[in-house]
Each structure stands twice: as structure tokens, then as C-alpha cells.
From TrEMBL:
PANTHER family, alphabetized: DUF4371 DOMAIN-CONTAINING PROTEIN (PTHR33939:SF1), PROTEIN CBG22215 (PTHR33939)
GO molecular function: nucleic acid binding
Residue ranges of every copy of the Tc1-like transposase DDE domain listed in the record: 124-247
Lineage: Eukaryota, Metazoa, Ecdysozoa, Arthropoda, Hexapoda
Species: Arctia plantaginis
Name of the protein: Tc1-like transposase DDE domain-containing protein
Length: 312
């Protein structure tokens, strides 16, 4: 969907929500939704409705997401330009697996996760940090050379080891954190005063998995939110899932699991290489268009939005 929005700007157009919906229906097989649902999708993808100085409503991409995308794209470009020879490992957690253009799938990293909830519930709610960390540790042990690992920011990927206190913490815990970080405070300060100091001195996030990788000689790069198109394993899995769908006749979970392992086994290193090249081409194209982020405003027609969508 982000590519659809971006395509308007590449052509010098300012799209309305209705135009975005029309383009999505044209490009995405079987896609249908209402204007109100389209607005919700855009908000879920990191856009927000605001009010322009002239009083019109407009939709803008969140600044933090723009910054995360640019940071990611510039980092990957630096690796390519410097001819960094480290394998680039890409993770996915639909089936916990990893692979790269150099080796294809990494056999030791395979873990088929069985969710027990109904198909209407998100499997992400069942995956937890403990299980994923155990799998990730096995992955690190299986890597034969220093590598660059790309993963998203799912909650179980993102356990912080330097988490700053919040309003949920006791006042004494906040005071202890401030003292540990060498920040002056007085006994007369109230909890809101202390939290304000925490906010001003909040450290850069350090994630447990990133630290584990670093200690093993690897580097983790985080995908920007809502940008799964930069992860080539998504294309690899599309191939594997199509293979499973074409042979699935019983729809029994045990049979599907067998088919899945078979589908994984026929994904070649060349398939991986092609998918990585496609993702890298997309990254290069988006970086070249990054100047558009400064003007990334979608003007919303009066007849396809309402006041409930506006955030001030």
C-alpha cells in the first residue's frame, strides 16, 4: 500500500483517499474496501490525519516512520557501497526461519510454530520473547561467519535491556534509575517531576537480541515499521506458500506441516538470490525518492473524510 501511495508522488500527483483506494483495487488482486476502511488502513500503516493551515484535512506519514525508513535505507546502501562481504540474513516468524542470498535457507534455523488459537486471532499474540530468544540463539550458533541480520520490530524481538521507567513504576524505582544514570534529583520532587527528567534523559534503546548477536560477532539491522517489502524472505515465503496451497488436499495441520517442509526444501539458493536482488532494487529506488518524504502530504477530499479522522 505504501508503494501505491508513493507512486502518486513519483508522477507529481497529490492523491485523495478515494484515489488511493481506486489504485489499490486496480493493483491488488481481490482487494475491496470502503473509503472509511481505506482511511483506517492508512492510519494503521503509520499515516495520520491533521489539519492544514488553510483548514483542509491532510494525511501525513508519521515522522518517526519516515526517519526509521531513511535510516534503514542509508545503512543498507552503505553496506552495499562498501562492498561489505558479510552474509545478510533475513528473518521471518510465520515459520521461524532465516536465509540469505549466499546460502539460501539455513537448515539449522527451522522452527515451525504451531498456534493454538482460532484462525481469526493473530498468531503473534502466542509467540513470546522466551521462545523466540531460544530460537534466535540457535540461529546465532549455526552461523559460520560474521553476518548482518535483518529483522522487524515485533514485541518478542524487542525486549529492552535498558528500559527506562514509566508512570507504571513506583516513585522509588524512578529515583533509583535516575541515580544510576547520574541524574541529579531532590527528595522534594514529585513523581511527575521525576518522569519529566526520565523523558529528557531517555537512552537509545538497546535490545536483548541485538546484544546477543553483537556478542557473537554479528550485527542486527531493524526493518522500519510497516515496510515488510524490504524483507526478501516475504517473497521466498510467497513461493513456499503457493507450493503448499497447490498440494494441500486434506487441510489437516499435520499434512500441511509436511508440505511446508517439502516446499522449503525446494526453494533454491538462486530463488533466494533473486528475491534479495528484488528487495535491494526496491530499497535503492525508495532511497532515491526519499526527498519526497519532505512533501509527503495526502490531501483529503471533503467528500471522502470526516472530522472523526482528524488528529490534532
Amino acid at each position: 500500500m505504501k508503494q501505491i501511495v508513493s507512486s502518486f508522488y513519483c508522477n507529481g500527483e497529490y492523491p485523495s483517499t478515494a484515489k488511493i483506494l481506486s489504485r489499490a483495487v486496480e493493483r491488488i488482486d481481490g482487494f475491496q474496501c470502503s473509503i472509511s476502511s481505506m482511511r483506517k488502513i492508512l492510519i494503521e500503516l503509520g499515516y495520520k490525519y491533521t489539519q492544514a493551515p488553510d483548514g483542509r484535512k491532510q494525511l501525513m506519514e508519521r515522522t518517526d516512520i519516515v526517519c526509521a525508513r531513511l535510516q534503514f535505507l542509508r545503512k543498507l546502501k552503505t553496506l552495499r557501497d562498501s562492498e561489505d562481504t558479510r552474509p545478510r540474513i533475513y528473518l521471518d516468524d510465520l515459520v521461524c526461519h532465516a536465509g540469505c542470498a549466499k546460502y539460501g535457507f539455513i537448515p539449522e534455523a527451522r522452527w515451525v510454530f504451531r498456534a493454538v488459537k482460532s484462525q481469526n486471532e493473530d498468531y503473534h499474540s502466542e509467540m513470546n520473547a522466551k521462545g523466540f530468544t531460544h530460537w534466535f540463539t540457535k540461529l546465532l550458533q549455526s552461523l559460520e561467519e560474521p553476518s548482518v541480520i535483518t529483522m522487524d520490530n515485533a514485541p518478542y524481538h524487542s525486549q529492552q535491556i535498558n528500559r527506562a521507567p514509566t508512570s507504571a513504576n513506583k516513585k522509588s524505582e524512578i529515583q533509583e534509575w535516575l541515580r544510576e544514570h547520574g541524574i541529579e534529583l531532590s527528595d522534594s520532587e514529585l513523581k511527575p517531576d521525576l518522569l519529566q527528567k526520565v523523558q529528557r534523559n531517555r537512552p537509545e534503546k538497546i535490545y536483548e537480541l541485538d546484544q546477543l548477536a553483537l556478542e557473537s560477532g554479528h550485527e542486527v539491522i531493524r526493518l522500519p515499521p510497516y515496510h515488510c517489502q524490504y524483507n526478501p524472505i516475504e517473497l521466498v515465503w510467497a513461493q513456499a506458500k503457493n507450493e503448499v496451497a497447490s498440494k494441500n488436499t486434506t487441510f489437516k495441520i499435520a499434512d500441511v506441516e509436511v508440505l511446508l517442509h517439502e516446499a522449503i526444501s525446494i526453494v533454491s539458493q538462486k530463488n533466494w538470490e533473486d528475491c534479495v536482488k528484488h528487495a535491494e532494487k526496491l530499497q535503492e529506488e525508495d532511497l532515491k525518492k526519499s526527498h519526497l518524504a519532505e512533501e509527503f502530504v495526502i490531501h483529503v477530499d471533503d467528500d471522502d473524510s470526516d472530522d472523526s479522522d482528524v488528529e490534532f
